[in-house]
Amino acid sequence: MKRKRTSKKKVFLWSFIVLFLLGAGIVSGYGAYLTDKAKQATTSSQLELKRGDMSKKRDEIVDPYQDNISILFLGVDDSEKRDYDSNARSDAMVLATLNEEEKSIKLVSIPRDSYAYIPQMDKMDKITHAHAYGGVDYAVSTVENLFDVPVDYYVRLNFNAFVETVDTLGGIEFDVPFDMTEKNSDDQHGAIQLEEGQQDITGEEALALARSRQYDSDQARGKRQMEILQSIFDEASDMKSVTKYGSLIDSIGNNMKTNMSFDEMSALHNYVLNRNISFETMQLDGEGTYINDLYYFKVYDDSLASIQNELQTHLDLTQPNDTIDEKNKKDSSYAKKSSSEKEEDKDY
């Protein structure tokens, strides 16, 4: 029987542990050591987007110290068994917008099977396939097209980082919603077995819970992923975990790619430290459907439009959001572009 623990006081998203640790400020008696490790980890993780430093949806490069910004978090399984021409599918996608003045954060969980337009491929497909087709460049442009907002930064983490983070923390407390039997990260069938109820879970168990697709819906899966990631931050934010930050930074640095510099990550430290921070999670509504005998998650137009508007407003973008009909016309017009115009888009 696994021991029970009292719940912690904070909730947040695991992805922001990355920014908190790598962009951390001073932790008494430990800050200089962590800062040096974080700088090294961030430097070794740099992978710029082909478009350059600025989204085509921006008029100028953003400064995270004073501007509202957006970050796309990608969770991928890049093991040999699931690799697709060196670009794994993105198994988890979360778009975050950060409002500097309000010190508020909005997070959108994007179902991996969402039926979305991939500009570089000039076709509709599952959004998870964007990364498989063309890595972070395709994933970023697809998300920008879906929500009609700029994606300023990305953080790409593989599942080794997820497992190692949970295990380094000594496990996390989680209320398992159902009895389950799943594969582990090595694809061993039945290796993970959990019973319903509140308990401590390991990294492999947390990963199995986050990835499982056979027990509930795509939307429930996205909500479950959010809850697991929040539980990880609960544990990491406990002061007794401070001595583990060095190992956590090493694990994250070894399993991460990003276009954020250490200085840019450091700008986000104030969001984590702000006790009055406003934090909101959102999820696309839709329904499963089959197109040419393949399963997709068809996002409802009104749900997409609502979240588009929320993100636009949160980023304080002056250009009004396109309607769904106008957006569809834009997507259709792409197919009519000349070959040279399409090649220019692909460079992005």
From TrEMBL:
Residues 324-348 have a biased composition (Basic and acidic residues). Pfam families: LytR_cpsA_psr. Residues 89-236 form the Cell envelope-related transcriptional attenuator domain. Residues 318-348 are annotated as: Disordered. Keywords: Membrane, Signal-anchor, Transmembrane, Transmembrane helix. The keyword ATP-binding does not apply. Belongs to the LytR/CpsA/Psr (LCP) family. This is LCP family protein.
